[in-house]
Each structure stands twice: as structure tokens, then as C-alpha cells.
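B., you asked whether I could sanity-check this one before it goes into the benchmark set. Here's the sequence:
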Amino acid sequence: MKQTGVLLFCLTASVAEAGAISSLKSFIQNAHTVRAEFSQTVLDKNTRVVQRGSGVMQFERPGKFRWVYEKPYEQLIVGDGARIWFYDHDLNQVTVRKLDAAIGSSPAALLAGSGNIETDFDLEEIGLQGDTEWLEARPKAKESTFEWVRLGFSRKGTLKAMELHDHFGQTTVLVFAGLEQNSRLAPELFKFNPPPGADVISE
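And here's what the prediction gave me:
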């Protein structure tokens, strides 16, 4: 996926401390299914916008998700609990990876994970920006494709935004809207069969 984005964070007094981490842990424990629309902005290392996109994401714990990019090009990412399928519609190409190998590099896999997130990430409170509480998660695995991820939650604990900064200096900013928790999602959403004639690459 093409990813990127940057935000400046205003640190506040200790009143906001522990808020975002607490919201993240509650989100992982209580949000069994999630559906939301998202907009994505990709910035280069000089913070110039290089791409904008949008789509819909859905997930069901543990490890099942469907991440659909509708603009600027069609792309589909499906996690079936064991593998992650990346489908590029224009190229008619599918890349498949084991879920465990991709958990440290995919925002979809990160959000749909279960258990203790601190097993895979070091968490740190950042503070309050406007009405959003932020935390930073740094993957413990050296082979992760991103350096850090930041998550923003409302005061009520609703996921609002997500940022990923990779090792090339690029940042991807994802902003979520219309987030629904614990509604029923059809099992077929989390299954993927490569289209006829698609080039399938296993990693």
C-alpha cells in the first residue's frame, strides 16, 4: 500500500495522561466488529501531499478485516484470520502473506488484532490535541515496515484517526468517520478468492 502523513501534536498537562492508552485497550477489548469510512493522505518526508484516497474498512476480531480503497484507484485488502490478501484491481495482481508476518506492517492487521497489544508494541502517551487524545505505538519487531503508529481517540474513547510513519520518512494519515461498533458483519466479507487470471504472489 502507498502510505504517508504528518501532524503536529500539542502536549498538555498530566490531566490527559493515560487517556489514549486506556481508550486503545478498551477499544481492543470491547470493539469486536467495526465498520467505518476513511480518508487517507500520504505525505513525503518534506510533508508534501503525494496522494489522497478514501474507502471503507471493516473488521472482526481476531484477525479478520476488509479494507477497501475506492479512490484514487481500486485496491482490496482482506484478512481471513490466517492470511492477508492484497488485490490490485488495475494490475489484476494478488499478494498473499501470513497474518503473523504482516501484523507489524499493516494498519488493518493492527486494528483487528486481539490480546495484549503491548506484546508487539511499546506504547507512549502523547497528549491532547484539540479534543483528540493521542498515543504512539512503536513496533518491537525490527522487520516492521513502519517506525511508529499514532492513534487518536475522542474523549469518549472513539477511534478518530491513525498515522503511520515508515522508515523512508513518509507518513500516512487516516481519518475515520461514521464508525460503528459491534454490528453484524457477513462472514463472506472476510473471505477472498483470487479472480480468474490474476497473478498471485506469495510472500
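One thing to flag: Confidence is low (pLDDT under 50) at residues 1-17. Otherwise nothing jumped out at me.
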